[in-house]
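Step 1: inspect the first sequence and its tokens.
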Amino acid sequence: MKCVLITSEVAEVLFYWADPEFMAILHQRFGGHDQGGGEAPALEDSINTLFAPMIISCTTLLEKLGDTYTCFSSENDEHLYVLHMFGECLYIAVNGDGSESEDDLRRKLYVLRRLAEAHFGLVTLDSHLFRRELRPGDSEQRAHIWGLFQSLLQTHHQLRQDDQSFAVEAVERLIHPQLCEQCIEFLERQVVQHINGSPERAGHEVVHAFLLVHTKLLAFYSSRNASSLRPADLLTLLLIVQDLYPSSASEELPASQFSEDESSLQRLHSSENIPMNSPCPHASSQEQMAEDSLQFLAPPAPEATNPRRIFLDANLKEGYCPMMPHMMYCLPLWPGISLVLLTKSPSSHVAHSIYQLLDGFLVLEKKLKDGQEIRPHLRSQPVLVELRHRMDNFVRRLGGQEPQLQNTWLEFKNKAFSRNETGSSCELLQAFCRIRRQLCAVYRQLFLGSSGAQGLPQNLLDQVQQLTRDKLQDWRDFLLVKSKRNVTIVSYLEEFPGLVHFIYVDRTVGQMVAPSLGAAEDSASELGKGPLPAFIKQKVWSLVALARSYLQKGYTTVTVRDGDYYCTYFLWFENEMGYRLEVTEVPVLSDDSAPIGTLAGDYYRKLLRYCSRTHANEVVKCYELLTIHLGVVPTELVIQQACDLARRLWEPSRIPLL
């Protein structure tokens, strides 16, 4: 039994996802007629009634004490609840079958927040506007948005269970240097330069292009003026691609039956829609047609190329800008193989200007909330003086197109820069909130409205899609097989006897190398078929969870004997030349901190920044290695093999991708 919920402070349901077991419990408790003989309550009303006491108590504690509970279990540990406040919205995850731990549920909430930021951008900084985006008044639009996030959550859950790269939250590359280099050159000359040199692109510029085979990265190219793509953003894009074109669709057909016909791909994708939960078996027709029972309303099928507005971090010449608007195009070549393009719109510089203004106002707003008395010296605050100059220029450039922003800014200046200083800190704080909301509203209108959905013309995308198909035609079957057997453990056994499995992760670039681990019933692996592959997979997933729990406590080395196996975990730092750097300790995290990973809070980027303080003159790189050996291998040999394995894997990680 699983459920994920986003609510406002007044217990309004902003989003929910629930599995059939949870829906059955709701129907059992609220599905019948009420005591007055009326109709059964709508689905959202039932969820609201069930969670309202918890939401009210949580927000009351936060209001009265400035703190609240983040996790609790019900009587007899039947149900586990994890809660987290993001802004003014409460995120809740529930598990009632014991299949998920506290870390799993908290990770699910952080991933959901990450997906919301990727789809709504800086609008998430204002809770009022964020609520309007997540829960629009139109029922069909609400069904589409909720269906989108429900499907992404389900896809992420499935990938975490089945795919090693999502288990450790790092991108796995297809190891083939020759083909990789050819594809990078092709992406540069035949894709990026072809589109950016076309007069039909209407100001849109392709900044990133990459090729995927299932969840594995074949090649990646960025234009000269593009900002580097963070590992967390790349992993988010892989998740979206898998949600649009699930790998399972291609696994049902042998390679010889893959059709090259465009119409077959179109039919394959048009049959896909965002997965929605089926209604309860005993639900009445009135319940199924209720406006609030949005999971019963299937959104329209996405377009063939799925152009989607996406917000990613960017380091520009002008400075850093989180959640910079991009347009994402996923062009399916064959089932399981896709070309992905990311374009930057001509108005992207406006997003950077809005972020700079928002960042400055948020800094001052935080000082006021923390009780710092900045009011007497407000006019002389260097930050606000600079903000005033930038804001005046920004409003002037809009040329009266946003009268609400202009009026709010004039009102703010009258309060903040008046000489009589009659306004209180509370009134000034409200003025900060209003100007922040108006800036987010301008951002929302520019980049989330219908006018922001225009992008590259379809005929240009069709040309690039066909060019890429022609390029990879002879490699197609090889790539599909290679994605299943990317790295084989057999090639390591002669040098490392007793080694069962390993995962090597370069956390600096967010990429990993690991032997293929097929545990599905219909797929054969080096371990054969039957229970053995699933058993080893369970050991690997358990080791990943164990390593994270110890890393959270500050341990960078773990060795443990697990039955007939010996498991190890190592985290270390190196400079650019490959020499190990001594780091005395890593931060110890609290139990309710952001989960360790890339999608949830980007732990490793913060860790690299933390460790760079003691090595200011060097480029610090971070690596992880997880190994599983047979238990008969002596401990000293296990440690020595881990060192030798890390040294051997250091070179293949330099396969060109960018």
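Step 2: inspect the second sequence and its tokens, then contrast the two.
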Amino acid sequence: NGVWARIEKPRPSTLDTWTHRRHGPNGNPVSRDQVIQVPTGVHWLAGPQWPTGHRKQAVPTVVISRKRLIYVFQDEVENSGKSALQDSLIVRDAFNGLPLWKRKAPSNYLVADGDVIFTADQRGNLSALDADTGELLTAFQPPRTIKVHGLMVSDRFLLIGSGDGVICMDKESGAIQWEQKISLKGKNQFIIADNSIFAHVDESRRGKGSFFVCFDLETGREKWIQPTSDWAKSSPDLILYQSGVLVSANKEGNDAVSARTGKHLWSYTYSLIGHGGSYAKIMAMHDLVWIHTANTQETKQYAWEGLDPQTGKVIKRIVQPKEFSMKHRCSYDVATERFFMGGSMDFADLETGQYSHFHAGRNSCATASMLPANGLLYTFPQACGCYSMLRGFISFNSTDHQLTNSSTAHLEKGPAYGKPLPFPVQPTDWPTYRHDATRSGSTTAPGPSQLKVVWTQTIGNKPTPATTPEQQETGFLADEWRHNNGGLLTSPVIAGGCVFVGVVDRQKIVACDRAGGRVQWQYTAGGRIDCPPTIEKQYCLFGSRDGWVYCLRSADGQLVWKTRVAPQDKRILAYGQLESIWPVHGGILVHNGQVFCLTGRHAAADGGLLLHRLDLLTGKNLWSVQPEDFENLPDVLNGDGDTVQMAGLEFDTLTGKQQKAS
């Protein structure tokens, strides 16, 4: 009756956020999220797929609230028609990946606090921004310039690490509550826990030594101060708080001191794992402090060892199997209360001791890593070529998808079903991607002696990029489309006197007259089209990212049939558009009079890939098979003899049985 109803899904209590660089202000990179486990599928994707700035540090800062993914990205923007590099502060919906707003980043310092983002610029100007809109809520104006090097929020306080020490401000008004003028190591080495601030005062260069000090969070009153020289050979790094203990890292291992008195409790030395191993990569969960050693119990095996926080004795070990290959990375490790997450998307289960690897994605290098929050695992662009993977800004989930064969229940007949129209395809035509079923990319037909433009036809408008600050802040979907790798148009195919081309983001197939370029017809599908159609006799066949295969009449573009080959009708957001979890990839192969297509994003995601055989005349799905011993991205199908091939795999055209590649 013209009344809108709003339905809200309650947020499960088992989800967690990631509001600071190392999860929270206590420095422990462990999420309490109970939903995300070892990832199995894609929840959403966004671009760009490759870093536009530093290949390893394109995302220097990420925080995640209950609703928003907030990060700084070394971006490429258009300014007066030219591309320019810019550090951008970008906010996306955490659950579907849609961009909410973008603006020039004031710095790399970010903290998420509910619906507020705290940040600071290089001049020490502190700001509170609305996380939904990017609008300025409060511009703090301290009585003097504060050079910010660290930023944390705890309760009603905003804590700043600077060259002058630690400053505590009211997060609502910006009024300074107290400050301690101390020489912070790195100008930012402090953590917050138990209504206290623990800081590392480092004056070793002045010959005065190194100290751990504790201040009351409310008043700034010093509770205790203890030198580190009694137990540390050099200035340690203060890492985290756990169970009344402060844990630090040195050049040989880790130390712990009492958070109540500062008294040294224990030291633990161990062999560091190679390539990215660090004594700072420690974490705490289930009342144990966990370290990663390369030689547990002198066995030369990697293991996570859980230490008693009061004594430093090993209580539990999660030993990495010798046959499991794991290579540490330069990004820091993270965890949930059940899973260690590190290496190259490697996971160790604290409950079962099982180690596993997720092949469809990879954590980014150096800074962003991978972050578990909101029941998802977020990853970010990186330029490493370790293995074949999905790339970009991606959130993965742990949903268990069971692939099932499609059936005629997913077949829809169009108005042209059973009503063919003549459409003569000539031997000199180019009717499919790379000319023929073998994808030879060649023809025996003669080419022109001299190239010249015969006609030009505009069939797909280029999305307008966000060029002004106002446009950039709105996060236009045009930018999302632009980040989807590939051109605005597919390559063309030519048959029966027509040129056929796909307009990728507009989800259209357009047929133009070959002689003059006049548009003959166009057809809009339900998703992006990433490959040109295949013209087989009077039929125009193509696949779409909506998970369907379409068969049109080549003469007039009328629908003959369409078949959903995606195993389920489920959608995700990908580069600003709805797509099937299992899109049709890489075009349609017609071989030996039968139609073949491939669905899925990666063999290791969402249950994997499916190869399908359809009947050309009816669209009926004759069989669907899953490639075996394959853990890569999908590839273009080609046919030869009695087999269909994909990325070195071969399948019998009649049965779908996988064969040993010849």
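Step 3: confirm your contrast with the notes below.
Helices lie at 469-474, 477-482. The mean pLDDT is 92.
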